[in-house]
Task: structure prediction
Amino acid sequence: MVYEPTTYTVPVARDKAGTRLDRLLSDALPAISRSRLQALIGQGCVTREGDAAEVVSDPSRRVRAGERFVVQVPPPRPARVEPQAIPLEVVYEDEHLIVVDKPVGLVVHPAAGHADGTLVNALLAHCGGSLSGIGGETRPGIVHRLDKETSGLLVAAKTDAAHRHLARQFESHSLERAYWALVWGVPAPRVGEIAGNIGRSPANRKKMAVLKRGGKPALTRYKVSRAVGSRCSRLECRLLTGRTHQIRVHLASRSHPVVGDPLYGGGVRHRLKGAPEAARSAVAALGHQALHAYLMGFPHPETGLWMRFESSLPSYFNKLEMTLDCV
Result:
C-alpha cells in the first residue's frame, strides 16, 4: 500500500505579519508539534506559494501578510523493528492506546547498544500492526520514555491521532505524572520545589547537570512521604517539565541523590558508615536508581474522559526500604 503525504496550506493573515514561520505554522496546525514543523522545514517540506514555488528552509523567517505556505507531512514510515515476545505487564489497553508497567532493565526503544529486546519490540509483538508509526522507525507508538533502570508507568499510542494528542499533552506538561524516589537524607523543607536549568554537564558528557548558563528550564516539585530509617526518605516527585534525568539531577543538586543512582548518587560509603552489613550489601546489590513512575493521568485522546493509573511499589523498592528502615 502506498501512502501519500498530507498537505496543509497556511495563509498569512494581516495580524500575523512579522511572525516567525515555525510559530505561524504551529499556531495554524496544532496537531503537529513545533519541533516537528521545524524538522519539516529543514527537510524541505515547506514551500511558499507563488509563480514559482519556493522551498523555505529557515524556521525563523519572518512572514509577510498575504503569503501562503504549503506544508507536506510525509506519511509515517512502517516500523522495521522486529516483534519479540517479551512479557509485558499491561495496565490498560484499548484500540487507541496501551499503558504498561515497565520493569527495571527494559530499554524503551532501540538505540546504540540496544538493537532489540526493548519495549518497542515487545509492543510490536503484543499489538501487531496497530502501533502508530508516527514516532519513527525505531519508536513506533512511543510518546515518552523512562530510563532503562527506572520502573513504572508508560503510555504508548496505537493510532496517529492518539499519538498527536498524547504528544501535545507531554509537550504542554498537562498530564499528571508522579514518581516515588528513595533518596539519601530528608530534604528541608519537607514540601518544596527545585528549579534550575538542565543541560549536558561540561565536566562529563555522559551526565546532565544544573547549569548557571544555558540548558533548558526545569522544575520539579517534591513532598516527603516518609522517613526511611535515619538516613533516607521516600519522596513523591512531580514533573512540571520533562528534561533528561530531571528528578535525578535536581535531587542530586540539593545533596539528596536517589539511592543507588550510578551516575548522580556518589558518596555512598560515608552515607552508610557504621550501618549494618545488610544495609550496605542491599544498596551495593541494587545497581540502579530507586525511582518508580507510580502515577499517570491524562484525558483519553478519543473520549476526553480523564484516565488515572497507579502502580504499586515494585518488590526491589519495598525490600530496600525495609532494610534501610532499620538503619
